[in-house]
Amino acid sequence: MTQLHVHAVSACDTASALRLLDAELPASAAPRMVFAFYGCQHDDHLLHRHLRHRYPGAALLGGTSSGGVMTHRGVLDRQSIGLLLIEDEAGEFGVAAAPLGDDAAKTAQNLLLEALSNAGCSGQLPELIWIYQAPGREEAVVEGLRRVVGDHCPIVGGSSADDDVCGLWRQLGPQGPMQDGLVVGVLLPSSAIGCAFQGGYEPAGPSGIVTGIGDRTSGPGGLVTATTGREIVSIDDQPAAAVYNRWTGGRIAQQLAHGGTVLAATSMCPIATDAGLIDGVSNFLLIHPEAVGEGGSLRTFCNLEVGSRIHAMTGDKTRLVDRAGRVAAQALRTLPPGHGGVAGALVVYCGGCRLAVGDEVARVSTAVAASLGAAPFIGCFTFGEQGQLLNRNVHGNLMISAVVFSR
User: Fold this and answer.
1) Cβ proximity of 198 and 385 under 8 Å
2) pLDDT tens digits for 153-173?
3) Are 196 and 401 in contact (CB under 8 A)?
4) Which of 49, 140, 275, 311 is paired with 200 by a 20 to 30 Å CA distance?
5) Radius of gyration of the CA atoms of the chain, in A
6) Residue 14 phi, psi (nearest 5)
7) Strand-strand pairing, 128-133 and 238-239
8) DSSP secondary structure string, 42-100?
9) Cβ neighbours of residue 202 under 8 Å, at least 6 residues apart?
């Protein structure tokens, strides 16, 4: 039988927060896996030591979350620490972590094998792979994991985040916190798991073909031609930022002349690729524009390829709030019949969506709780999301995922 405990507190310093958590945590709990999410100002070395002492045998993973955490009891502020404890004597759980290094795909592949070994399940296919990493090389990480498992099990997780995109995100693994790392967890629970991964935006109408991609990582020569990357040079052979500005009715007109960040301005109008049909309805993988670059390029938080068709998308607060509950409900529907009830859930909600809904974020927690009934859940706010969309493991932006555990 699987049992989940969720506890979250808020305090201005880490020692005080840990004392509050200790007062809440069940004394008899013996978790096999512990998820920890927290505000970026907390001392995660202290948090790590505390959790290692209290739960020495548990697989530990997590990291920073943008602007706080959410649970079935509501949303806590940026000074919060939240824990999800998974108790399952008959299940197997493992974790491994390391800096991403020069070859993020190889690092991911090695960490998955190490996590399986730590779980005592080498050579087995896990029910779920859960990852938390530094933003920037998510596609390489997913590709490295897929070298081992393909798309035969879901790869779910997020890119660690801070409060204002200033680079203070960190990842927490069994050896402690990292700033440019990857944590890979494998879950082989004794009960069933259900998963869902969606975005909360709809097509706005315009679309075009990516005809130029730039790459700034190849050397000292600045922007060079590439076939895959995160800087769109042109759409339909026209400067990408100008095309996007036209699609969105002048949303980034101020940045066209001199460049600059457009992250906040584009949260309600991302772009997307068409991932395919489910029951005749198109599903989209969302991509968040980040900045206008030199020569009118458009930088994003997700890789694109030359020849891809991208679509202008649109969203509103109500849709982004309601979608979280729908994703949780969809994850519930993927559980097998007669699963014995819901033990709890783990939710990833994009930090960009959190900023976009503003004060309505409390309703996000309420929507998820309404879908899960009395089951506890914890949610983190991330700067990139990973999940399985149309049976393929992918990385996207402005997405929502839910993992539901049965008892």
Assistant:
1) no
2) 999 999 999 998 999 999 999
3) yes
4) 140
5) 20
6) -65, -40
7) unpaired
8) S-HHHHHHHHHHHSTTSEEEEEE-TT-EEETTEEE-TTEEEEEEEE-TT-EEEEEEEE-
9) 313, 314, 315, 319
Per domain, the residue ranges of the chain are: 3-198+318-406, 202-314
Q: How far apart are CA 159 and CA 253, in angstroms?
A: 29
What span, in angstroms and rounded, lies between the C-alpha atoms of 161 and 384? 9
Residue 399 dihedral angles phi and psi, to the nearest 5°: -110, 170
User: Residue 398 has which token pair?
Assistant: 């402005």
* Distance of alpha carbon 170 from alpha carbon 140, whole angstroms: 19
Q: Does the pLDDT at position 219 exceed 60?
A: no
Provide the β-strand partners of residue 345.
Answer: 377, 404
Alpha helices in 175-275 (DSSP H): 240-247, 253-256
Single out the residue of 342, 327, 373, 269 nearest to residue 2, CA to CA.
Answer: 342
Instruction: Find, among 51, 52, 82, the residue nearest to 66 by Cα.
Output: 82
Rounded Cα distance, 122 and 403, in Å: 23
Cα angle at 54 between 35 and 85, to 5 degrees?
30
pLDDT tens-digit profile of 45-77?
999 999 999 999 999 999 999 999 999 999 999
Quick one: how far is CA 392 from the chain centroid?
Answer: 16
Residue 216 · residue 232 · CB < 8 Å? no
Would you state the structure tokens that stand for residue 401, as one six-digit string? 């995922």
